[in-house]
Amino acid sequence: MAEQLALRVGVLFSQTGATAIIERSQLNGALLAIEEINQSGGVNGRRLEPVILDPGSVPIRYGEMAEQLLSEDGVTVIFGCYMSSARKEVLPVVERRNAMFFYPTLYEGFEYSPNVIYGGAAPNQNSVPLASYLMELYGNRFYFVGSDYIYPRESNRVMRNIVRQGRGTVVGERYVSLDGTPEDFDAVIADIKRQKPDVIFSTVVGTGTVHFYQAYLRHGGNAAKVPIASLTTNEAEVEAMGPQAAAGHITAAPYFRTISSDANRRFLDGYRRMFGSITTVTSCCEAVYFQVHMFADAVRRIGSTDTDRLRVALMSAEYDAPQGRVWVDPENHHTFLHSRIARVDETGEFVIQREMPRPVKPDPYLAYPALNDWSLRLLNPDPDPLGSRLEHVVHVNQQHH
Ligand code: ACM
């Protein structure tokens, strides 16, 4: 019997340019899942075949390459994008051609598309718990530093609202271009020293992350006193900047490499076997890994890759991911994810400080009040000033500073 045609899927992550550090990690996550699926017989007898393109971290190229994948390469499903500016380029292409697009990256929220499954955290799953944690432990004077594009600006708009709900203030806000130099960050740090914040919230991405944390160290920044907190500084960026620059700083994410579970051990063993080491395993890598598996499971269930049928099947998709069980929220196409906060130790490893006891429902429009729910306040005249959501935070590691 002739072997069935391979099932081609588009894989659109940059291996060059400003965000290659993190997108190579995502590419590996996709390739690992594809390899596992093929090793276990493929999808309904068909091998998955990745069609890999490198947009070079240039947003407009993601749109052009998505078009190419769908019109020339016989693909109807794409896994891809880190930067929100890249996702915004792909969005109209997949909508016009009715393709399915899996986006495995945390982002600013405030988006929905019938053609997208969002696998990274929305602000209520990372920014809100992070702000609570920082205000409780460090203080409420925040300084925002970001790369200059849509995610940092929008994410900071959301963070500003959360901080204000917690009676905090934003004492400074600076943006550095994606190709910013180490010297660009020297000027930012001079301003941080003038403003004396309690905490720095960084939405700097890619290579800029390395420049920023190294500059903070060079200028005598004290992570134990005034940490840099982020959603985008993952294991791969820490690896690139070195443990000295990263130590003491904080990241909120659904997944960290240090999670102790059988699913995570299997994931890390597979990654090590395929890529030689686990130093670049990140939450964004884990997100694309479980999204490829969710896709394969859905195609197995319906025996088709037809987008309209696939969309229905994905509305009940779940997976025992390395972070724990995750599932798609049919209300908004985002994903129920775990919420964790970790601090980098002297060896450059993330040590989890807190985690929510169960996956958090995605609330991409922040439709439900975050820190201070005024309706709850009426029922409870003297609430914790940090708000009701903190009740759900479990302290897993009390040692800090
Ligand atoms: C991002 O641009 N969503 C990290």
CATH topology descriptor of the largest domain: Rossmann fold
The tally of helices reads 13
How much helix is in the residues? 40-55%
Kindly report the oligomeric state of this protein: single chain
Q: N-to-C SSE series?
A: EHEHEHEEHEHEHEHEHHEHHHEEEEEHE
**Side-by-side strand order of the widest sheet:** 7-6-8-9-10-14-15-16
Question: At the first level of CATH, what is the class of the largest domain?
Answer: Alpha Beta
Summarize model confidence as the mean pLDDT.
Answer: 92
Please state roughly what percent of the residues sit in beta strands, choosing from under 5%, 5-15%, 15-25%, 25-35%, 35-45% or over 45%.
15-25%
What CATH architecture of the largest domain do you see?
3-Layer(aba) Sandwich
Question: Which consecutive residue ranges, at least 5 long each, have pLDDT under 50?
Answer: 374-401
The biggest beta sheet reads:
8 strands, mixed
- Overall number of strands: 16
Q: How would you describe the shape?
A: globular
Q: How large, in whole angstroms, is the Cα Rg?
A: 21 Å
